[in-house]
Amino acid sequence: MKPTGTDPRILSLAAEVAKSPEQNVPVILLKLKEIINNTPLGSSELKKIKQDIYCYDLIQYCLLVLSQDCSRIQGGWTTISQLTQILSHCCVGLEPGEDAEEFYNELLPSAAENFLVLGRRLQTCFINAAKGEEKDELLHSFQIVTDSLFWLLGGHVQLIQNVLQSDHFLRLLQTDNVQIGSTVMTMLQNILQINSGDLLRIEGKTLHSILDEVVFKLLSTPSPDIRSTATKLLLLMTESHQEILILLRLSACYKGLRSLLNKYEPGTEFSQELGQLIALLTPKVYQEVEEQKLHQAACLIQAYWKGFQTRKRLKKLPSAVITLQRSFRSKRTKALLKLNKQKEEEHRRLQLQLQRQRAMRLSRELRLSMLEIVHPGQVEKYNREIEEKSALIIQKHWRGYRERRNFRQQRPSLTEYKAAVILQRATLKFLEKCRKKKKLFAPWQGLQDLTDARRVELKQQVDDYLRRHPSSQMSDVTSRELHSQAQEQLQHYLMGRALEERAQQHREALMAQISTNIEQLMKAPSLKEAEGKEPELFLSRSRPVAAKAKQAHLTTLKHIQAPWWKKLGEEEAGDEIYVPKEEFSVELGTLFIGGTKPP
């Protein structure tokens, strides 16, 4: 799925890569370096650009270019080394999203392996090169490839184990060239500084091979740079992993290593690291290391035991703590509820007091205003009306209160009455169903007793029926003949039905063929536009159809060739034109006759 809001530069570059020939793809991919460099590091825009590059398969294109022959690529090793930089920068900090499994399990290991293979090829070309300028260029490209590999491993630490186990990395480490060896040793030192724990996860044979090569370069290489890097590597390995220190101290392969290291002059540049390494390899230091290891083990056991005791004590505390917390929370909740209730009551009381004061004030203002308006002679009448209205209002509220109180008192009895009605209704329905079931499944109780007169009447009816409908008795021979006749008629019917089915299928096939021929004829071009063997496609296999088509064709030809004065009465006469049979024998006699071979 392509992302939305893709950078137009990536879109144009992907389109250009897709349309360009294979030899121009590496040079086009170099434009990615300018796009990445012009984007601020660590910004969300850079992450989006990397996702776009991955989604449009430009990273896969870079991997394919790295596996190609250098001589076929424009720019040679310079282009390839720059592509390694682009590939490593695109892979570090990339969030693949849905394709995470493919990215981490396939693409990244493939990229690391391609970097190592590319380093081997550069190593071979550097050793075989004769010119100094060419060697400098190849060494620079090799350093770019190793830096790109280190950048990739720094962003994806899980690849370190794959790189250390690779045969290509071991071959690069075993080189005799000083410059290549120094670069590889420096890269190994930087890798172990990132994560030295992967060194013990590799196979024992590979670990021994790496240690052997580092010790060999320390003892036999005349270059001080390589010896310094080898010393730092061994020091880093022994300080990080006690197992490697024990291996160097006790293994028969490295017996006499300390005595050989003591022969170096103390005035060298790496004498301090060398002294630390020699001190680690001495038996005293080894004993101290063992004691320190035992001390750490004892501390670890004590820590686990104390933790177990503390957890055991803590398991007994939760019940008391939970009870204390529950009581405290309930007390706090009650206090808060009481406080809120007091606040609500106080607020309600104040509101009620304010409403009363407001109502009293309004009533007094209304009375004063009415006293100002009403004539002095009508004041008593007005007061009586007000008193009557007030009495009516008081009576109305009192009656409403009384009825509501009576209703609340009568509500249980009304509920019981409704419940009794519902129960009675359900009971009546149940009893009605039971009566229906009894009537439905009641056993037959027999006929009522018949009287003698009724028996005589019934016997007379039976005798009359038998007299009108005498029973026909059939012998066994007649029964067998009737059975054989029925079997013959059934067989005849079945055979006839099979023939009818075949005839029906034949009719349906003919109808389908006729429909197909009609559809082809409707879509057929005119004779002027027909070319090649197109007329042969419309030859009919049926002779009546061919004869009818021939007759219609000749009729049309004769009608076209006739003079105009013979066509004057055609509309009144009709569309059909009679053609004698002698006119059928013309040159086009075989045009519409299908199913025949031409003479």
UniProtKB/TrEMBL annotation:
GO terms for molecular function: calmodulin binding. It comes from the Eukaryota. Residues 333-360 form a coiled coil. It is found in: Cytoplasm, Cytoskeleton, Microtubule organizing center, Centrosome. It holds the Pfam family IQ. GO terms for cellular component: centrosome; photoreceptor connecting cilium. Keywords: Calmodulin-binding, Cilium biogenesis/degradation, Coiled coil, Cytoplasm, Cytoskeleton, Repeat. Its main location: cytoplasm. SMART domains: IQ. One of its GO terms (biological process) is cilium assembly. Involved in ciliogenesis. The function in an early step in cilia formation depends on its association with CEP290/NPHP6. Involved in regulation of the BBSome complex integrity, specifically for presence of BBS2 and BBS5 in the complex, and in ciliary targeting of selected BBSome cargos. May play a role in controlling entry of the BBSome complex to cilia possibly implicating CEP290/NPHP6. This is IQ calmodulin-binding motif-containing protein 1. It comes from Callorhinus ursinus (Northern fur seal). The gene is IQCB1.
